[in-house]
Design brief:
InterPro entries: P-loop_NTPase (IPR027417)
Distance between the termini: 38 Å
Number of domains: 1
Organism: marine sediment metagenome
Structural class: alpha/beta
Helix content: 25-40%
Low-confidence stretches: none
Largest sheet: 3 strands, parallel
Number of strands: 3
Order of helices and strands: EHHHHEHE
Strand content: 5-15%
Shape: globular
Number of helices: 5
Protein name: Sulfotransferase domain-containing protein
């Protein structure tokens, strides 16, 4: 069975390092990745399609594509069904590989979405504040 690996965690928690190692080990993270910059010289290893997708429900709830404080789970759950087909399309695209994955700074705010990903293996990075 094909495996999906999602690396989730806050910014500056090591998610890029973990995703970069997973890519070297053969996890397909796609080709459209965020560009390196002075903060992550080797890159963020963040699939742009999944990154942009995760902004959609936030914008639907808050009017912005990011948050200072996560929206209430109930509010997110109300809008999530309208984006499920989009998620399934992304999963189908990448699930062609035996092991595929993506990095998510927002994914843990969407537990209902994570349930839509077959054979999910979740890696959660936590950093000390």
């Amino acid at each position: 069975m094909k495996k999906a690996v999602v690396v989730a965690g806050m910014h500056r928690s090591g998610t890029s390092a973990i995703m970069g190692v997973l890519q070297v080990l053969g996890v397909d993270i796609g080709d459209d990745l965020g560009a390196p910059d002075e903060y992550n010289e080797k890159g963020y290893f963040e699939n742009r399609e999944f990154e942009l997708f995760e902004h959609l429900p936030l914008k639907a709830v808050t009017g912005q594509d990011d948050w200072a404080h996560p929206p209430q789970e109930e509010a997110l759950n109300e809008v999530l069904p309208q984006f499920t087909d989009h998620l399934k399309s992304l999963v189908s695209k990448y699930a062609r590989s035996e092991i595929w994955g993506y990095k998510s700074a927002r994914g843990l705010a969407f537990p209902e979405y994570l349930k839509q990903i077959p054979n999910l293996h979740l890696i959660v990075n936590i950093r000390s504040p």
